[in-house]
Amino acid sequence: MKVHFSIILVATTAISTSYAQDDFVQSGSYGIRYCGTGPGSRAATLQDLLPKFASKLRLVQADAQKGTESKVFRAFFKSQSNAPYVQDVFQQMANGRPAMIPSEGRNIGHVRFENPNLVCLHPTMPDYEALRQQCGSTSVATTRQNRALVLLCQPFWGLDEEPEGIDCPVVRGNVFTQNNDDRIMQNQFAVFVHEMAHAYAVSWIPTEAKGIMDCVALSARASIKNVQNFALYAAMVVAGCNRYPDPDLLRGAHGK
Asked: What is the tens place of the pLDDT at every residue in 81-118?
């Protein structure tokens, strides 16, 4: 199964302003909307998951403190100078800090801050049909254009909670093999990191790299602008993966 992501470009204003007041709960600073309330609801599931994710993110942050002494950090972020920025992204993600949102239209150039919100696809929400089509049949989650609101699509709930060692990609000839290219991303933790990196990392580059070797091949500067680098890095730290391509050898092989 491939894990698919997309960005919501429609119906975002209605979602952000028309929540049912009796269908809103929190987990720390994260808002949870249209996910029901009470025991057994998806909101309750998220309230259980998010503190676990925060704990895992602090492990990832601790790895990032090692900088290029960490093989996984070196594979995905290349440079010691990226370490403070990567640490800060994961700290913000763990704490659910308000995300900086660029303004649009006449206010372009200005910014505002919004708390992160997770939203379950539900028939009572505004513009449900358009959003259901945006999710499609394969996307696990989508991020609204302002990046602080994540819509959780139906396939998200069928994923494992977090990655395990068996999910680690195989390295042969200094490259990750393609036979299990996507398996490390097939879990709720990796999906969460990918989507929240849109909010907390500078994530817009002309074409977002998602394939694992495409992410490894990015330059140090491009790597911190690519959300999949954050997701793959975090997932591999949590899974305890211990084999990674050497980026210096890759650059030598490809003349980069």
From this structure: 999 999 999 999 999 998 877 665 554 555 677 889 99
For 20-51, give the secondary structure using H, E and C: CCCCEEEECCEEEECCCCCCCCHHHHHHHHHH
Q: Would you call 110 helix, strand, or coil by DSSP? A: coil
Structure tokens at 229: 């680098």
Distance CA 90, CA 200 (A): 8
- Cα angle, residue 70 at apex, residues 179 and 199 outer, rounded to 5°: 75
Amino acid 52: pLDDT: 98
Averages of pLDDT over runs of 10 residues in the chain (256 residues) are: 46 42 83 90 96 98 97 95 97 91 56 85 79 77 71 92 93 74 90 92 68 89 93 96 82 43
Q: Angle at the Cα of 237 (from 232 to 243), degrees rounded to 5? A: 85
User: What was the pLDDT predicted at 130?
Assistant: 80
| Both tokens assigned to 131 | 């959003």
Structure token digits, residue 26: 């929190």
pLDDT of res. 145: 53
- Which residues are within 8 A (CB) of 134 and not within 5 positions of it... i.e. 6 or more apart? 6, 8, 10, 142, 151
Closest CA to 195 of 242, 146, 231: 231
Give the whole-angstrom CA distance, residue 211 versus residue 229.
10
Sequential DSSP letters for 57-91: HHHHHHHHTTGGGSHHHHHHH--GGGHHHHHHHHH
Rounded Cα distance between 179 and 143, Å, is 28
